[in-house]
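Example protein as discussed:

>
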Amino acid sequence: MVLPAMRQLIKPLWWLYCFYALLLFLAGMFCVLPFVAVFSLQDEKTGGDRIYKVCRYWDSAWLTLVGIRHTNIFEAVPDPGKRYVFVSNHISYLDIPLILQAIRRNSFRILGKAEMTKFPFFGYIYSRAVILVDRTTATGRSRSVRVLKSTLAIERSVFIFPEGTFNETRHPLKEFYDGAFRIAIETQTALQPILFLDTYDRMHYSSIFRLRPGPTRAIFLPEIEVQGLTPADLPQLKHQVFCLMEEALIRHNASWIKPALFP
């Protein structure tokens, strides 16, 4: 009986906190906007790296001010001088800002949904920072693959959510799409799996107004080499990475997993 009463008392404070977080986000966005506009006029390598650097400042300041404390945990340490196809689970809107906290290099690019560009001002920054993919058309998907390959060709890593969208299944992971693994094989680029463990609890995928302060963790798993693999090996590679990430999510007690499914 006490718990529902406490929730009613806390709810106004929670909404106030979410409104505060939104105002901080918008303030940071308008501070970053002119820098992104200038850097987007530069060449893709220099300007793109600078856009990621200034966005990381915005990102770090916002997370600190809303009370989210991030930690990277390395089961294996990525080579800082090596390019990767980074892959991760996707469970929350908060996964996006935490990418910049997990990957502390500017020389990478994120694959993101094209529909996010519809938001005023934020859409402009987003369109300059990420590789856009329109999954509704074959042309859009093909274009994103070409851009990802060209990004790897200029010695920039790429980041892809192989689940495509939020995992709402209560299983550790949704089924993976082929794209990240096909690109890794065709460009002979190692895969680097990362797990976001706490974003489900910090911001539930049902709404951006489900934000909560607290800790977050990113777990770096061992990289997966693809040297010598061919397109015929794609199903096996995808299964290998899926099993590695699934086992680690279960081992680290990811909170969205339904216990009865994985005793």
Summary: Helices lie at 2-39, 44-65, 95-102, 122-129, 138-153, 179-187, 199-202, 234-251. The first strand starts at residue 68 and ends at 74. DSSP finds eight helices and seven strands in the chain.
